[in-house]
Amino acid sequence: MPCFYYSHVFLPFFVTEDTVIGENDRFLDSYTFKVVGGGRTTGSVRNYSEEEVLKFNSLSDSESSQQTLVWTYDDVPESVLLTKEGFIVMSGASNRVRWLCQRNSPCGDLTPVNLLDPDFFFVIEVSNKETARNPFCEHSLRFELHVHGFPLDPVRGLFFMQMTMTVIQTILLCYIGHTCWRLRQKTVYIKKRDGLDEQEGSKQFKAGDAMVKVGSTLRSCFLQLYCIIYRIVQNPMLDHFIMLVVLFDTSTLMAQTFQGVTVRTGWCLSAVDSCLLVFYVTEAVFKILVQGRTYFRNPWNDLDFFIVFMSLLEFTLSLVQSAGGFGSRHASTLFRVLKTLKGARVFRALRLLKAIRFFKGLQAILLTCLESFRSMSSIIVLMFLFLFIFTVIFREMFNESDPEHFGNIFRTIFTLFQILTLDDWSLIYMTSRDNGAPHIIYFLSLYILVELFTFLNLFIAVLVDNFQLSIRKRKLCKSQKSPDVKEGETQSSEKAVEDLEMSQAEIEEELHKEALRHASSGSKHSKRKIELICRHLQLLAAMDQHMQKYRSQACLLDNLVETFFTDRDEVTRSDVVE
After folding, report:
1. Average pLDDT score over residue span 213-240
2. Fewer beta carbons within 10 angstroms: which end of the chain, N or C?
3. Cβ-proximal residues to 5 (8 Å cutoff; 6+ apart), any chain
């Protein structure tokens, strides 16, 4: 049984033999190509009914589509010949078949078995009964075909993305629920401390303004959610986790470069790639929610966003193609133009650049190289200027002695680039010397001296000088950066989180005051009691503030006394030594 890989082109080749005279020749007449049966295994192969054969192989509307549910031409011609039933008429000169297996076909959306790519067994019928002009030359042939390595269906890839997103949402909701539970416990503790039990507070809330309560609650929830997302983004564990995801994605991309791995596990690797894309999108969305417009002011964030966008564009194109979203001829033409953007698949390799932002040394090297190109632009212009001058000289003087290398302007440029790397320049010299032009050695020496030993070394010197300047700047910044600055940065980040918590505390305080206000309406002495409680809390806060000032002053006094006695001991020791 012939076996073929799914992405390879199937080229049917038929030979007819005359049993009378014993001659054979390639069949070049027209015929129909139909899939009349199939199955996942050899034991489950069955023959399709006439309705199924018509559905899987015919073109119901030749204006809107030129491909069946199972297969199509490798290069779709402008006009397709059809039979009365809508079957495609092929010929021996144009019979390149490419498998499609759309979702409504028997081989669509196959799942793997034992972590290997899914395969399918087709029953093919090739016949010229509907196209033969002579009824005495009708032929029909049936054979089985084993096709393996079916890719992941984009819709199923979307399902894997949804499952991954569900897992992330579940973890996030559990974290939010735990945080809200702790906040609830803290609120209950405050109410018990202030003498207002939880049941009374809830009753008083029901008697109040419901809209104010709902608005305050929603605002509290949104602020708490923002605070949680802020903590997640600022947590260094997120960067470490994304780094692990990038490394794992790198290993899968490297594995797909091996043909044996791609043929056997390409379906599973595509599923893993769909799941990893969700993590990249979630990271970008979280950072945009927290940082806002400042997210795009960082060039590394711009690089991450570009990589994620190109990955989503590739997945969207494959999903639209699988869903058959383009029906008319003009829309199909537009989709063929957009399909050229499917080269965005190569941008998956750019995900490796996401690892740069986790290493400060790599960032410094890359930024130094980019800054060096500004100062090296003049050197590059001079190199190309002298390259053009030497191209004209070598083309005019040595096109007859060595036409293979200096026959035209483009060959001369390529040859001079080759000499710039000192690759086979001696062979070029010997070729011209044997053909009567030994003086080429002087021009070759001059070209190597100017281009290689002067401009190229100057190019490297500028790059090395910029690296040295970059190292000096980094050392200078480290020396100027004191521990106080680091402490200030830490305090600023902690202050941002505290501000969010204070806003949450203010909302809780307003709700608590409203509860106390409603409680005062139901009792005669509750208002006086509330005033005493508020006054008591203010006195406690003032006492706490004065205690902190006293502790700071006492600590300062202790430091002064210790410094005084330390200096006195040092002076005494110096006097004794003298």
Report:
1. 77
2. C
3. 147, 148, 149, 263
